[in-house]
Amino acid sequence: MTAKIFAFANQKGGVGKTTTVVNLGAYVSAAGRRVLIVDVDPQGNATTSLGINPRELSLSLYDVLVEQTPAQQAIVLTDQLGLDLLPATTDLAGAEVELAGQMAREQMLARGLKPLHAHYDYIFIDQPPSLGLLTINGLTAASHGVIIPVQCEYLALEGLSLLLRTIQQVHDVLNDRLCIAGVLLTMYDSRTNLAQQVVSEVRSHFPAKAFSQVVPRNVRLGEAPSYGQSIAVYAPASAGAQAYEALASEFLERFEG
């Protein structure tokens, strides 16, 4: 078993990136796959969304990147069988500065994750909403590509050109396996013409990459992280849960079919 590694990236914040990593991870692991979520965002939203308190951690991704602590030692188990977490703490904010003088600094995450490849089917990297060194590390480690969540709102595609350019540069210099693996439309409101326009615009830009499943705007999806639970546990009958369950099926079909 060699893990398929995906980075979830968009330098625009609030597009449902962490929500997607956590809930897709939950449903893919519920389908019997072993999944590791790697929280590369110093805000630690994926960590807290899975019910882990960063202040109670003795080791985190910071130690793996900066101190070269074996990643296995920093992994924490979540409440869901088959879903593990390499957590983030606020220490990670200083990692960019501390790594700046290191040789091959863009490859620290890839190197840290290497011993874990045999233990997981999928590794999902939750990227920070920026294009700094931590994001570059995530893209360099992503052997199977980038999944880009795009919010169904005005100017959704604005700024994506910068991300696409960064992906191309990382592909050319650091990771020639890097590609756009998927584009996911999030926060969809079927009542508005604008949302429908964004869907058709994104699908015409990325015809082969856009997932057919869209994620609706859903109150339960917003509530679940404050309870430290995935939507699969918090509100399994909600529209948000149904969307992520369907997305997980489409994801597995695309990458295992």
What does this structure look like?
The protein has one domain (4-251): 3-Layer(aba) Sandwich (Rossmann fold). Strands 3-4-2-5-1-6-7 form a seven-stranded mixed beta sheet, with helices on both faces. A hairpin with a 5-residue loop joins β3 and β4 (83-86). By secondary structure, the chain is an alpha/beta fold. α1 packs across α12 (239-256). 40% of the residues lie in helices and 13% in strands. The chain has twelve helices and seven strands.
- What number of domains? 1
Enumerate the strands of the largest sheet in spatial order, edge to edge or round the barrel: 3-4-2-5-1-6-7
Give the N-terminus to C-terminus distance in angstroms.
Answer: 16 Å
CATH topology term: Rossmann fold
Strand content: 5-15%
Mass-distribution shape: globular
What is the fold's blueprint, element by element?
Blueprint: E1 4-8, H1 17-30, E2 35-39, H2 45-49, H3 61-66, H4 71-74, E3 76-77, E4 83-86, H5 95-99, H6 108-113, E5 122-126, H7 133-141, E6 146-151, H8 160-173, E7 180-186, H9 193-205, H10 219-223, H11 231-234, H12 239-256
Parallel strand pairs: 1-5, 1-6, 2-4, 2-5, 6-7
Antiparallel strand pairs: 3-4
Helix pairs in contact: 1-12
Short description:
The protein has 257 residues and is of the alpha/beta class.
Question: Which short descriptors sum up this protein?
Answer:
257 residues; alpha/beta; Rossmann fold; seven-stranded mixed β-sheet; 12 helices; globular
